[in-house]
Amino acid sequence: xxxxxxxxxxxxxxxxxxxxxxxxxxxxxxxxxxxxxxxxxxxxxxxxxxxxxxxxxxxxxxxxxxxxxxxxxxxxxxxxxxxxxxxxxx
Length: 90
Known about the structure:
Blueprint: E1 2-11, H1 17-28, E2 31-36, E3 42-48, H2 50-62, E4 68-77, E5 85-87
Parallel strand pairs: 2-5
Antiparallel strand pairs: 1-3, 1-4, 2-3
GO molecular function: acylphosphatase activity
EC number: 3.6.1.7
InterPro entries: Acylphosphatase, Acylphosphatase-like_dom, Acylphosphatase-like_dom_sf, Acylphosphatase_CS
């Protein structure tokens, strides 16, 4: 099991990005969470098998139809053992 911290920048708030991300994560069996950040980006903590994480990143880098992803940064981190994938609010 691997875990990733993912930051997505661009037009990613107000376009259904978090709901899109949760749907993709749940479809692939990815655990963790997604949340909007104050700076207009979206933060994702994702845990799962390497191949599924690769597929997840591929989808997230595109985003939903109304999104415009301009940058995505990925950093490996330690798994925290989430049991589902949730939308968090700050």
